[in-house]
Amino acid sequence: MKSQNRIHRALYVLAGLLATVVTSTASAQECTVKPGSIPLGQTVRLRCEVPAATARLNSRTVRLFKQETGDWLGLMPVAVADVPGDYPIEFLAEDGTVLASVNLTIRKTVFPSQNVVLAPQIGALHSTPEEMQTLTSFRDSISDVKYWEDSLVAPVRGCVISPFGVKRLHNGKPTGDFHAGIDQRAPAGTPIRAVAAGVVKIVQPFNVLGGTVAIDHGQGLETMYLHMSKLNVEAGARVNRDDVIGYVGATGRANGPHLHWVVYVNGVPVNPQQWVGLKSCGTAKKKSKEN
Ligand SMILES: [Zn+2]
User: 54 CA distance to ligand 1 centroid (A)?
Assistant: First the structure.
């Protein structure tokens, strides 16, 4: 009888070990990345059923936040300057333990070039160090509260004159910069709407950006709207999706009225057209005046 007990106990221990192995294998699948294959300049949605505090893609680390559903969600930006290839996204617990690793394919992406003709007085505009600092602080602040929810609305209805990611030339000279937002066609005075709920962080005229409103939507999502003729909100205000935050203008480095707006995901500018369905103007090539 004694030896039978020992066998039972051994089997029991073995079963326990097997259960541990099975559980840890399962937890590796409890985190997902969507989509699993993505062009440069887009956003990957991260989801975990286990308490993941952060996720890491090469040298970029973003936070995940516990949702009312019990899941942990986060947003991983793929920058325009990232190198295409296959990479693991690692999910980490609070103490730094790797909970799961999921593959992401970053696809090769071709961005066209676009020349912008600038009048001398507009080309001479430059940002001040204070302006740069204001923008950096905005991009770097990631707030815990999630104000936004899918899906976002378009800030104006107009078609896209200039897409995200195009390499910019000013008067034929390469700037070394890319278009970090999109330009939508809209007549001067058109109301501009918040794409999602959030807290207004910047309401200010900038030298290059013109009349600007920047909104923190929470948990890593931020948007910014430029070249406005009139600003309709105050810094610190809570806004809802669809609230009018200002009006289309041509202030700052802009040759004509249009809306340039930007989506930042955890501080990295990403393609707004992945977030909001918008039509291209199509015949945009000959009209490259906007910035
Ligand atoms: Zn623009």
Answer: 32
Cα-to-chain-centroid distance, residue 255: 27
For the stretch 213-225, pLDDT in tens is 999 999 999 999 9
- Give residue 82 CA to ligand 1 midpoint distance, Å: 21
The token pair at 209 is 């950006």
Q: Which domains does the chain have, with CATH numbers?
A: 28-107 (2.60.40.1930), 113-286 (2.70.70.10)
* Beta-strand runs (E) in 6-129: 31-34, 37-39, 43-48, 54-57, 60-63, 65-66, 72-77, 85-92, 98-107, 113-116
In this predicted model, what pLDDT tens digit does every residue of 177-217 receive, in sequence order?
899 999 999 999 999 999 999 999 999 999 999 999 999 99
User: Is the entire prediction scored with pTM above 0.70?
Assistant: yes
Q: What span, in angstroms and rounded, lies between the C-alpha atoms of 38 and 279? A: 20
Ligand 1 centroid–CA 70 distance in Å is 39
Residue partners of 122: CB distance under 8 A and separation at least 6: 253, 254, 255
> Are 77 and 57 within 8 A, CB to CB?
no
Contacts of 1 (CB under 8 A, 6+ apart): none
Q: Helix, strand or coil for residue 69?
A: coil
Q: How far is the CA of 76 from the centre of ligand 1 (A)?
A: 23
Distance between Cα 74 and ligand 1 center (Å): 27
- Cα–Cα distance, 78 to 271 (Å, whole number): 10
